[in-house]
């Protein structure tokens, strides 16, 4: 039954869809804004390591795409789409508010030392918040798009198809703006007793936008066309399918004639309309089987591709881009490509006489995504040519740095190096830890001094030398390029007493005499630093500036003493900055975005158009379920797959999707498009005829018969 509503229209479209599009924009802003912060919140506020943070993050994303099944059940069987959206949006808003509260440092910081005293309370609150968000966002996902489709009348197929494009545009516009704004809010400093990264503000804005989303949706209430729920549809579907399978098994002998479709074995118990509707759904669900592989590749732009960007240079002309900002390229291209495809490419293809059906579009989308990973593999090969080699297995790497005032000669097994004062070896030398049996230091007019140190295999080490009989071995602690394109900086103290260094707000505490600090990491640009030491005279300059930091480099800053006793800085390169430009990732993002436009937008519209009226949310949930399965594939592959070369993993994923693409194309070849409305109208007509025959068993004879009588 259709609810009462006044018909409002604008430019040939129902006015109600504009409220739905604005609602979707705000909701996606809320979701993606929160999600952009989540991994950093887990890592730096809660204090989980990278592995656990990544696992919880992907589990949450997968859960968000599993709960649409529940939302579809509630909408189609109990509350209807409108009430389901409103109810679960309230749950969603509460969840966003809870996670914002969980990020307030002062909530449990009773001793005001800047660290929460009960981190478990924050973890519990954040998990409750994420569970409510997963229920809310997942529950309304299948309902909003289907509810938008419900607003159109028969004969408005063109407008409805355009709506799904606009709807997808709103999703990506919300995603784009939120992923730019919320990280900017996070880096603000706030707090009552101690100043921290402002997670409460960064999470609070998405919570506010979710509240706005709910209000906007409710305002349009009187304009919506609402369908009443038609009972527990999913339960009927499950029971009908179960009966058909059971009945077919009972009649498996050859004496029973075969039926046209396996669901026809349910005709003895269930009416023909329901059986026909389930046939429509199962035919589409069967097509969904290969689709998760597309999402398994698509979702890696937030993980693998971001890690790839971290090994590249982000300086594009006068613009500087951070690795995690490259994801916005996808959202920007979506905003550009959706109108171009809808207004230019598809009409041009139609004029050429090519029947570009939805399933053909989806096949092309899968092929383009596969090619995107081929492009990523090519870029990775270029990156690998520039990456430093780190020790593996039982290997160790050693670099010698002479921080003294004499020339030094250092002998290793099989090689000898001579260093001038304030210099270092050009590269790290690689040795097998078992063969690094003797290292000797000598200088003109001095005895040979052996180096006795137990080197830790699989790590880089720096041998600091400042006199023939004075040396120290320091474990570097860097076994990979600095992540996120940041730059590692450490300080070496050649003074007689320890000192502190403050660089860009980060403090190196008590850097010991003739020792090296740990690395700390900074984004690109020039950084200021100050040296605080009792040995430095007040007449000396103690404020310095770094060299220009690019992307992914590491440096050692040696603080030496000049003849006048004042400090001077000598800079040594440990890891060279990235040289392959992030602009080379744009082709792979372009291919993946084009694939997403023709795959995802089309899939939404196809799922709606091929579903019977009482099962549209169920089929939308099935579509979203493929995204969840895709995320689970990523988790499995990330956990099980061990590749020595990253490009090989990209090629494997590209090959897998290409195989799946061929399988899907074959499946699509045998799919027959239907119009569920026409089929249901025919059933209505047949039922009407049967009702008339039943209510009037003695029809009047025609006039010719009466004349004869």
From TrEMBL:
Molecular function per GO: oligopeptide transmembrane transporter activity; symporter activity
Gene Ontology biological-process entries: protein transport
Record carries keyword Iron-sulfur: no
Membrane topology: Multi-pass membrane protein
Pfam families membership: PTR2
SUPFAM superfamilies: MFS general substrate transporter
Keyword Transmembrane: yes
A single cellular component GO annotation: apical plasma membrane
Subunit-structure text: Interacts (via extracellular domain region) with trypsin.
Family that this chain belongs to: Belongs to the major facilitator superfamily. Proton-dependent oligopeptide transporter (POT/PTR) (TC 2.A.17) family.
Stated name of the protein: Solute carrier family 15 member 1
Source organism of this protein record: Camelus ferus
Gene transcribed to yield this protein: SLC15A1
């Amino acid at each position: 039954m259709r609810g009462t509503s006044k018909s409002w229209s604008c430019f040939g479209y129902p006015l109600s869809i504009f409220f739905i599009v604005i609602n979707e924009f705000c909701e996606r802003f809320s979701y993606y804004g929160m999600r952009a912060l989540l991994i950093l919140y887990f890592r730096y506020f809660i204090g989980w390591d990278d592995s656990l943070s990544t696992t919880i993050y992907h589990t949450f994303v997968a859960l968000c795409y599993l709960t649409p099944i529940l939302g579809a059940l509630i909408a189609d069987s109990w509350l209807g789409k409108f009430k389901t959206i409103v109810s679960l949006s309230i749950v969603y808003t509460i969840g966003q508010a809870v996670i914002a509260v969980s990020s307030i440092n002062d909530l449990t910081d009773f001793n005001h030392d800047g660290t929460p005293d009960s981190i478990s309370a924050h973890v519990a609150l954040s998990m409750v918040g994420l569970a409510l968000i997963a229920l809310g966002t997942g529950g309304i996902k299948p309902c909003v798009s289907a509810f938008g489709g419900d607003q159109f009348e028969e004969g408005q197929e063109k407008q409805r198809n355009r709506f799904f494009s606009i709807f997808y545009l709103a999703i990506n516009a919300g995603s784009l703006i939120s992923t730019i704004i919320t990280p900017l809010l996070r880096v603000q400093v706030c707090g009552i007793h101690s100043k921290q990264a402002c997670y409460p503000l960064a999470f609070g804005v998405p919570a506010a936008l979710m509240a706005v989303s709910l209000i906007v949706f409710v305002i349009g209430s009187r304009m919506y066309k609402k369908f009443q729920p038609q009972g527990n549809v999913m339960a009927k579907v499950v029971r009908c399918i179960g009966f058909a399978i059971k009945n077919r098994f009972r009649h498996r002998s050859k004496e029973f004639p075969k039926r046209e479709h396996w669901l026809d074995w349910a005709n003895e118990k269930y009416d023909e309309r329901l059986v026909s509707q389930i046939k429509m759904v199962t035919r589409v669900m069967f097509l969904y089987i290969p689709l998760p592989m597309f999402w398994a590749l698509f979702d890696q732009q937030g993980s693998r591709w971001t890690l790839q960007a971290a090994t590249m240079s982000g300086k594009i002309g006068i613009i500087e881009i951070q690795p995690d900002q490259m994801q916005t390229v996808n959202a920007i291209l979506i905003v550009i490509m959706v109108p171009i495809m809808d207004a230019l490419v598809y009409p041009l293809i139609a004029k050429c006489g090519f029947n570009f059906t939805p399933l053909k579009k989806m096949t092309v989308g899968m092929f383009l995504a596969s090619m995107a990973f081929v492009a990523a593999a090519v870029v990775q090969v270029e990156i690998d040519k520039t990456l430093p080699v780190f020790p593996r297995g039982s290997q160790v790497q050693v670099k010698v740095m002479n921080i003294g005032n004499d020339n030094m000669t250092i002998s290793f097994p099989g090689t000898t190096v001579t260093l001038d004062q304030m210099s270092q070896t050009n590269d790290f030398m690689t040795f097998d830890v078992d063969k690094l049996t003797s290292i000797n230091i000598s200088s003109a007019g001095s005895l040979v001094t052996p180096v006795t140190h137990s080197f830790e295999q699989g790590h880089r080490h720096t041998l600091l030398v400042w006199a023939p009989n004075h040396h120290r071995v320091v474990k570097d602690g860097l076994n990979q390029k600095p992540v996120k394109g940041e730059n590692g900086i450490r300080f070496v103290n050649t003074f007689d007493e320890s000192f502190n260094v403050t660089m860009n707000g980060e403090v190196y505490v008590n850097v010991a005499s003739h020792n090296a600090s740990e690395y700390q990491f900074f984004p690109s640009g020039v950084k200021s630093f100050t040296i605080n030491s009792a040995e430095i005279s007040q007449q000396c300059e103690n404020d310095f500036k770094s060299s220009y930091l690019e992307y992914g480099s590491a440096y050692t800053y040696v603080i030496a003493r000049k003849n006048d006793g004042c400090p001077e800085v000598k800079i040594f390169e440990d890891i060279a900055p990235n040289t392959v430009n992030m602009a080379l990732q744009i082709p792979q993002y372009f291919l993946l975005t084009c694939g997403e436009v023709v795959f995802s937008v089309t899939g939404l519209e196809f799922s709606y158009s091929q579903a019977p009226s009482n099962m549209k949310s169920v089929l939308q949930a099935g579509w979203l379920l493929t995204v969840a399965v895709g995320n689970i594939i990523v988790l499995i592959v990330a956990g099980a797959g061990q590749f020595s070369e990253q490009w090989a993993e990209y090629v494997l994923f590209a090959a897998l999707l290409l195989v799946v693409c061929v399988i899907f194309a074959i499946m699509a070849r045998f799919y027959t498009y239907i119009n569920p409305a026409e089929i249901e109208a025919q059933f209505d007509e047949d039922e009407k005829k049967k009702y008339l025959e039943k209510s009037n068993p003695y029809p009047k004879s025609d006039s010719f018969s009466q004349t004869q009588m």
